[in-house]
Amino acid sequence: xxxxxxxxxxxxxxxxxxxxxxxxxxxxxxxxxxxxxxxxxxxxxxxxxxxxxxxxxxxxxxxxxxxxxxxxxxxxxxxxxxxxxxxxxxxxxxxxxxxxxxxxxxxxxxxxxxxxxxxxxxxxxxxxxxx
Length: 131
Ligand SMILES: [Zn+2]
What we know:
This protein is α+β, with helices and mostly antiparallel strands and 131 residues long.
């Protein structure tokens, strides 16, 4: 895994662990997959049936992510896009969220979005008290 992605992933796992709840739950899956070398980055997206996939995961924590969209480089994914995909796949594993066909959102993204939303003051206070 390229070091800029590894660094972003490690930082993200730490943030997620501090948020508690679902965020901490899928951070554990992410960390586990990462430390056991089960995260594979492919250079480009790949075809699954009639659509292009940028991420795929199996319940044992194995995940495959696309670094870029295609070889013509019309759509370079940022480091953050790739980490988002990792989080998305980790939610699938941690919460057993079913995948649905693109373009319908399958629910995993709503958890990732919630865990990326800046914390409100009330939430920050709660988590400080909990320590
Ligand atoms: Zn999904």
